[in-house]
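User: Some background: our group keeps a shared notebook of sequences we're curious about, and every so often someone picks one and asks for a predicted structure to add to the entry. Today it's my turn. The entry only has the sequence so far, pasted here. Could you supply the structure so I can complete it?
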Amino acid sequence: MERLARILINIFILINIFGGYVVYATTFYYPITDDLTEKQKVAIKRFEELLGKPTQQDLINANNKLEVFLVNIDPKHPSYSLTKDSNKHEAVHGINAMSRNMFKKRSGTGLVIGFENNQPKAVWMNEPQSTILQVKDAIPPKARKLTVRYTTYFLQPQNPQKDRWTNVTYLFDEWSAYNMGGYARLGGEGRGLVMIGGVADYIVFGTAVAKRLMEIEPEYAQSENFRAVLKLMIEQSADVFKKAVVYEKEKGKIILDDSQRKFFEYMRTDSETADLRKLLKDFYGEDWTIEVLGF
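Assistant: Of course. Here's the predicted structure to add to the notebook entry:
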């Protein structure tokens, strides 16, 4: 009851602070544009005040290479609870969204890759011109059937007017949330995440998206920023998966959902993913793919 009361109080405070945009959900991917209502503009300005907008030099550095920065949240601010919340998956969505709100449409987003002294550590991902609608068919047939996440994240975003659902960075937002949720579950923070999922399947999804971007937006796919983000996301997913396998053996308790082993093996050995394995070897070298993914 105490935990439920705290959650309800936090949500009530956040609703009042941000004019109706609750940080716990991906409901405020609003870029700062002239067509926003005054209420929305005020909310976004408050997000900026909350996080501390990265400097122009941060953006210049992030434009061509992976740049890690800390997203600073004032400990006195009610939303600081996000950084300590055991439901890291949803907390990450809120923090990623706040970073996106700092910039104009299609600029990009910050992706949480960890927490340092209760401060989110993020990387900046530039936004490609391509959309989810343009990359969804790149997912191999078997992969579409192994999990409901293909339907959730690739087929449901059909409305081009809803920018947050069609941007490719939305897929990476989900990916970082699954990675952080997986680490939280391994660390004993299980609220909001009973089983670990979304890590092995997103290795396949992310690599397939990269392959399609190489075809339709090669300059972006070959950029140092994109390749560095993709590499980091894969490394974290593989790390969560491997640690979960060890955890299960040592604890005798299943924490990986049924699809994760299937996806990991599918990525490593299936003929459908041969082109994806080649892409990763071309991007990062065979030494890296052997060490991280076992092929």
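Suggested note for the entry: Residues 224-251 form the longest helix (28 residues). The chain has one domain: 2-293.
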